[in-house]
Amino acid sequence: MKHLLSIADLSREDIESIHDLTDNFVEVSRRQIPKVPALRGKTVVSLFYEDSTRTRISFETAAKRLGADTMTFSVSSSSVKKGESLRDTIDTIGAMGIDAVVVRHQSAGVPWQLTRWTDAAVINGGDGWHEHPTQALLDTYTIRERLGTLDGRHIAIVGDIKHSRVARSNVLAFTALGAEVTLVAPPTLLPPSLEGWPVRVSHDLDSILPKVDVCYLLRMQRERMTEALVPTLREYTATYGLTRRRADLLAPRALVMHPGPMNRGVEIAAEVSDLPTATMVEQVSNGVAVRMAVLFLLLGSGTRAEAARVVADA
Amino acid sequence: MPDSSVVIKGGTIVDFNGDRQADIRIVDGVVDSIGEDLGGDRVLDAGGCAVGPGLVDLHTHLRQPGKEEAETVESGARAAAVGGYTCILAMPNTTPAIDSAGVVREVLDLGRTAACDVRTSGAITVDRAGEALAPMAEMAELGVRFFTDDGTGVQDTRLMRRALEYATALDVTLAEHCEDASMAAGGHMHEGEWSSRLGIPGQPAEAEELMVMRDIALARLTGARVHFQHLSTAGSVAMVKAAKSTGLRVSCEATTHHFTLTDAECASYDPVFKVNPPLRPRADVEAVKAGLVDGTIDAIATDHAPHTTETKEAAFDEAPPGMLGLETALALANTELDLDLRQIFGLLSWRPAQLLGVTDVHGGPIEVGRAANLCIFDPTATWTVDPDESVSRSRNNPYRGRQLTGRVRHTVFAGEPVVIDGEPQR
Questions:
Q1: pLDDT at residue A25 in the model
Q2: Residue from A56, A65, A104, A153 carrying the catalytic annotation
Q3: What angle do CA A70, A75, A78 make, to 5 degrees?
Q4: pLDDT score, position B244
Q5: Which of A14, A57, B173, B177 could bridge across to B225 with cysteines, CB 3.0–4.6 Å?
Q6: B16–A contact, CB cutoff 8 A
């Protein structure tokens, strides 16, 4: 594997082997000095056209824990502001001799375009509404840790599916690993076509909640109101928010997940996010280990045996 | 070489009167004789070729004035000649827009030395802003026969009604880029299965169809001639077919890309496939093809829309829409459509010539005494499209690597061989 662009490019076995590698790196993260020299001498650049402190820091932490050098190309203070094109930017960064670039862009497809212009490994850190593959890898890893397997599990993804790269990657990852997926959203927040999506759709959260093993909530963005997609945030919360009352409809061991950042009081009630079945904190910590696994896969040998060796030697 | 003669030798003449094997001798820009074994000062081999009237494009973006780095009247006309065209209609979305007699004169002047006959359309509204009528009579006076705000449709229904009413006194055609702006807002490809999967904001087929529907109603109300530009959906084709059957004065064109490419191309995220109206699903492509075959669609147009490589090397939703078309249109029609050569020349030459009102010199028939505007086309030559070989200034050709059957061998414009063996002569 040269790049990580889309969950669609990964087989079930690919995802599972990334999870297996992640197991090794989770252990590293718990150490007093959480660092192994697996990628010493490698350089990883984060190229973030859209603000995302969480994802950027997670990738940079992952790279540093593997001994790689990291650089941040901050778009807001750079030549891009002066009109530099996508191609010129990647040519410039590439000329510095880098091994991987993690790209976050507000437009779908940018990571694919970069692969045409650079020899470095390209990691999709989120492209427009399209995909966010490492988020799906860390989410599935978290579910696997909590529930053992995704096979046969029923997962509801609730909220603004239409504009969500997290939803697109997770639909692919959840179903690849054998889970059943129900999308729960008002019709205005679903993609215009679900042709070819192996999912069911519901507009009735109350009837779905008792049946699911995982309730995966998406962030509801305030700008959706101005686009007439939902009348008010209040009405959204009343119909699709995981309120305290609704959380009681969940099976006792059903997980509550959210990619963050949360709008407490909108898609999720504050008390619900603090339930023991809520996984938000683990998602963040697993995110670093999953990203270590991805970097190791793309820039290192990628084998589990080698991972075990560097982890043990350090 | 005003005094020398040119002979097109060994080809089959194809025009709306039928096919016949004959040589053509041209003297002083005019067909001087048609017959067997003609001789002359210069002989162009047309063995195995169809010799048709030069092609006429109803929809060309020449980018001059304003974006000369992407195309000029001269370079666009040269690309047209290489594609077999002897007449092209410049679209008015230049900077400044072609919305006054002054800009019309500028474009026509630039066209006087070009490799084909450059006509221009005029904008319907001032600066194509959709707010006030442009001085149509003043532009019609200079020979403008087509008015359009191409790039956008006229959104204000009342204004479009007035424009159509006003046009009925001028014997001109109003051509509409059908797109309901509020419906299409923010959409960068066709809205459907592919846009949903790719996460690219889409615009539905209905954004086009709503305006086709409205303008058919306005054609009925005003009695004006309405031409629908670049129709791309099954629904649009069906509505125009129905409107024609009730006797309304409507006509339409389809572009080569709308019958040869689908929205699945956008999966590459290559902005070379971004165009407006967007590439559509297979069912729409088939409906456009069927409309070309059954005569609902009057003409094939190119919507040749040059963009520099820099502007197309942007993110898909940030890149400008548009693709090249002049150099590949005839070969694509020949390769992809289940039509004989005479029907194909009809769609690319005499039908658009009639719609544009240029049949005095373009679109045939090929007869003694008529202007020698000819396209000599080898229908069996095979070739592979290489955008880097284009004579356009731009490289945004979506057919890179595509195998095509049929190639323009020579183009004769006003008696002068402007393209010989595929090579532009000026």
A1: 95
A2: A104
A3: 95
A4: 98
A5: B173
A6: no
Q: What pLDDT shows up at residue B163?
A: 98
Phi, psi of A79, deg, nearest 5: -60, -20
Return the structure tokens found at B71: 């195309």
Under DSSP, is residue B104 helix (H, G, I), strand (E, B) or coil?
helix
Taking the whole predicted model, whether its pTM rises above 0.80 is answered as yes
Our measurement of the distance from residue A93's CA atom to the centroid of its chain's CA atoms, rounded to an integer in Å, reads 25
Q: Which residues of B fall within a CB distance of 8 Å from A105?
A: 315
The question of whether B303 is a catalytic residue gets the answer: yes
Residues belonging to chain B: 426
**Regions of chain B where pLDDT drops below 50:** 1
Interface predicted TM-score (ipTM) of this complex, two decimals: 0.94
- Two tokens, residue A42: 């490698």
What token pair was written down for B243? 């409107």
- Residue to substitute from A87, A107, A112, interface B, most B β-carbons within 10 A: A107
Q: How confident is the model at residue A53 (pLDDT cuts 50, 70, 90)?
A: confident
- Does B310 lie at the interface with A, CB-CB under 8 angstroms? yes
Task: For chain B, positions 182-201, list CB contacts with chain A under 8 A.
Answer: 191-193, 195-201
B54-356, what's its fold?
TIM Barrel (3.20.20)
Across the range A293-313, mean pLDDT stands at: 89
Does the distance separating the beta carbons of B317 and A107 come in below 8 Å? yes
Instruction: Test B199 with A110 for CB contact under 8 angstroms.
Output: no
CATH value of B5-50+368-424 in 2.30.30.280, 3.40.50.300, 2.40.50.100, 2.30.40.10: 2.30.40.10
Q: What is the pLDDT of residue B1?
A: 45
On the question of pLDDT at A81 being above 90, the answer is no
- Across the interface, whether the CB atoms of B198 and A108 are under 8 A apart is answered yes
End-to-end distance of chain A based on CA atoms, in angstroms?
A: 26
